[in-house]
Structures are given as structure tokens and as C-alpha cells.
Amino acid sequence: MQSDSNYLKNIETFIVETDDVFNLMELYAVRIKSNPVNKDYYDAFLLQCEECLLTAKTLNIQIVITSLEEILKLFKIVTKKNLPLNQNEIESVLEEIQDLYNAVRWQFKNKNLSNIFMSKNLPLIRNFIRRYSLAQKEEEKLTKKGMFIEDPFDELDGFDTFVDGFLDELDNVFDEIVAKDKKEVKNEEKLELTKKEEKEVESLFLNISSAYLKPVKDFIGELKNGTVSKDWIDICLSSLKLIEDAGTKLSYDKIVNIINRFKRLMLLAKGTDAKYISHRIRTQLLKEYANLSLILPEIFALSEEHSTKGTRKDTIIVTSLLKMIPGVGPVTRNKLILAGMNTLDKYYMATPEDLMSVSGIKLEQAEKIVEKFQEYKKSLRVKTNMFNEREVSLVKLAGEIQNLKEIHNKYKESTRLALYSPKYEKIKNRLKLKRQKTMWEINIILAELGEIKMLEDFKKMIFDRRIDRIEEFLDVEFKKIGELKGE
Prior knowledge:
74% helix, single chain
């Protein structure tokens, strides 16, 4: 039987060690509430719940063990059965987490060692467990909706989920355009050709056009993934002219009419002073190309390669750099991403006026963004060879991880001190922001090194685990370098 003083010391240790864990559980519960079918969120929540329960059992913090065991049981069942939680269920779990968080702090503050915690949500959670345990068939599949790249510890965004949702939103808008155009195509007057003649025309047109279509597909692939330079226009116009001529000779009016509209839009874009094709013209071009894809998907449909032009590496670096700029919040970042500003090259070439034109952000913000990306571009090392460049990045990473360790240790100490004096809450919050800023720097270096998988893993990890993972990585990498140098 442990003494009262030992138990209070254990509670103090538990609070400090699980501060990040409780934050992550709460963050992922909120994300499940907004997107109840994303399996990644359930997996991440489970990981943190197991971590918290293990710490509670190790330190014998009975006040939270029962609730954590039941929450863990519920999540294991729904994950195994591929059943999403409904809003009422996730609300109960979220409230239980918050109550547990407050209960251990209340117990420590009041030196109350009775271990009594009257949970109002635990009976509900047990009912959910019984109901799911009896469920015989899967009512709705938990499906992956793509990787969510936002760091869950990004407190500057709160629980903002625009990055999770905007790609789905774009896809939905594009699907609606396609569906609408599909109806329009169906309602159009039929060509005065027999079915056999139509097939012959399509086959001949396909053979002629496929040879000229590559630059147009490349252009649309870039356009679908974001804002593009007007340099593409002259490259595509000659190809479009040849395809249009083939369609005219074969009396393929449907295709010719769409290509004519497509060309007029490109010429309209060419006549503007802006460096990039505007958002309005970009949307119309995508719509017209969707019409072409509906009529002849055999030659106009885009390949997977065209659909995934934007790299995850660039996305991570761009997002991290934007988050470092004062005055550039989630709304501004959302405007830029929706405008297609998703690669480093686009920011390197852009002027403040370009950014204003394509996204509608303020000049002051645009100037700060251009300055930040030019600063980053200058900071890139002169490429000598891949080995030396990688070594420099690893050395820089080692410095940043040491910095992160120091900040994180101070954060944990301020979490402990805040239990005794409220004035340390402000210090704790400042350190939390400083810790996240350092993490952005680390994200950029890891992306430069191509360690995207590690960054994906981080979204499920507390900072202690992130630090351990990077230190293990550095040990392996520096050992490889030593062996290559014969040290």
C-alpha cells in the first residue's frame, strides 16, 4: 500500500507525462466527431488511449483506470467491426476524457485521496459497448479518406479541419460539374450519323488525336492540381489546332465546339497581364475538359500520373513555411491552397501581385509570403552531391532535435509547476507555441530528406515519442555516414 505522499507524487507525474496524451485524445475525438468514417482518426485515438492507460496502471492512478479501460474497449470493438461512432457516442467519450483530465487535477489540488470519481458518461459508454458487441453485421464501413497531413498539435489552428475537407470539397465540385455536363451531353441533339458511322468516326479521331494530346493532358493535370503559368498556352494551342482540324474534317461537331470554347478561354487568359491563369478561367477550362472526357474518355481521360502531380514533400514544406509567417492564418492558407499554390516553384516565381490575383489575399500578406519563400530558397544549400547535402541536413536536424528536447523538457516542467501556481500557465502556453514552431522547422528538414513516412507517423505520436523516433533515425543515419567515410 503506497503512502499518501507517494500517491500524490504519482499523480503529479501522471499529469506531467500525460498532458500531451490527453491533448491528442481530445483532438482526435473532435476530429472523429467532424469526420466519423476516417479510420486514421480511430487508430490515432486508440494509440493515445493505450498510452494513457499504461501510464495510469504503472503509477497506479485508480481514478482514471476504469474509464480508460471502457473507452479503450469501445474503440477496439468499433474499429474491429468497422462501425463508425455516432455524434452522441463520440460526445460522451469526449466529455469523459475532459472529465478525467479535470478529475486528476482536482484530486491533486485538493489532496483528496479517496479515488472517487462519479462519471456520468461511464454508464452510457458501457451501453455503447454492449450494443456494438451484439451487432452482427457491419452497417457502415469505416473508410480511409486520404492522408491528413495536419499536425494535430498545431494549436494555432485549433481544431480547424479545412485541409482534411478541402480536397474532398474540390472533388465534389468537380464531380458535380461532370454530372451536370453529363446530363447536358445526354440532352444534346444527336449527330446525323448511324451508330456504326459514329463508331468509325470516333476510332479515326482517336487515332489522329492521341498523338497530339500529351501536352494538353500535361497542362490539364497541372491545372487540376493548382494554378499554372500562362507559358502553357502557346504549348497547347498548336496541339489543339491539329485536334480541331481533325474533328472538323470528320464532322465531329461535339468535339469541335468544345475545343473552340477551350481555345477561346486560353486566348482570353493569354491576353491578361497576370502571370498565372486566373481562378475563373481555370474553373471554366476544367469544365470544358470534363465535357471532352465524357464524350471520349478513351483519349481525354487523365491518368493517375496527371492526377497526382503535386508532391507530398512540397505540400509539407509549403504548409510549414506558411504557418511560420505572422498574420497568415488558416483562412489565408486555405485561399492559397484552393488557388493551387501548392508547390515551392510556384511561390519562388510568384510576385505579391500574383498571389493577390490568384487567391484574393491582402497585399501585406502576399508580400510577407513572397519574402518568406525567397528567404527559404536562399537558405537551400548549394548542391554538391547527394551524400554531402544529406549530411548537412542531418547535422541541421540534430541541432533542431536538441532544441526541441530542451523546449519540451521546459514545457513538461512548466506543466508540473502550473499545478502549484497559475502563473506558470502562461509560460506553458508560450513554450507550447515555441515547441510547435521548432516542429515546423523539423518537418521541413525531414521532408527535404524524403522521410515522409516518419512525418505521417508523427501525427499519432506525442512529443516524447517523436523525439525518440528522430534520435533513433539520426543514430542510424550517422552510423551509415561513418561507415562510408571509413570511420
